[in-house]
Amino acid sequence: MKKINIEDINFDLEYEGYLWYSNAQKPKVITKIKQEDFSKLPFIIEGNLYAKDEGISIAIKNIDGEYFITQAQVKDLPQDQVTNQKFVAHKLDDVKKIKIIQYWEESGKEELLEGMKTLIPSWKAFVGFKKN
Length: 132
Fold this sequence. Notes:
single chain, mainly beta, 2 domains, six-stranded antiparallel sheet, three-stranded antiparallel sheet, 9 strands, 0% helix, globular
């Protein structure tokens, strides 16, 4: 997972996700995003996008007027270091659950574990919806 800027987003991709605007009561399910979506008003409070074919997950948060955007490459991750999670979706039309993956990184050798490595939670990424 890495931090990116607005201009690093590939606006040509087909996404599954949502954007929650500052003037809306609930998030809006989308398949496309445009540079214009990052306007001053209304602004994006929160968003999650997933381009399935490319395996790209993007998380958008607006904190005190500044966008914090992260991107994760979720394609071809070692499956023994990934857990799949589903959470109940609130206020998303025709969406039953939000799908998330949790990625686990190997820690250093632990003295208390006879020098064995362990997995520790590293990051989470949005990977789509389970529809109604």
